[in-house]
Amino acid sequence: QVQLVESGGGLVPAGGSLRLSCTASGYISGIYTMAWFRRAPGSEREFVSAMSGTANKTYYADSVKGRFTITRDNARKTVYLQMSGLKPEDTAVYYCAVGGSPGYYDYWGQGTQVTVSS
What we know:
Blueprint: E1 3-7, E2 10-13, E3 18-25, E4 33-39, E5 46-51, E6 58-60, E7 68-73, E8 78-83, E9 92-99, E10 107-108, E11 112-117
Parallel strand pairs: 2-11
Antiparallel strand pairs: 1-3, 3-8, 4-5, 4-9, 5-6, 7-8, 9-10, 9-11
């Protein structure tokens, strides 16, 4: 059983930065994609960013391009999300996900709260 644990959330003023981390435990077979999603209050979950296991190709939602950077450490089975230039609309619970390819995720974390004050 794969478990994902996120950390790094918190309260930050607009314009500030945070770095989220997500570490996977358990056996993950093959080459896998690691991703971040978020859910704001009253909204559906939305895609934020992903990094594939092949060639480390990255994907970003238009709303975070140029502000967020995804990286991963395969040896530690950890994915990071460096968030800069945070805006109040970035306030959400951020979830980590792992799957076999971009767009297909089998495992999800419990989420970490990010709150950006105006």
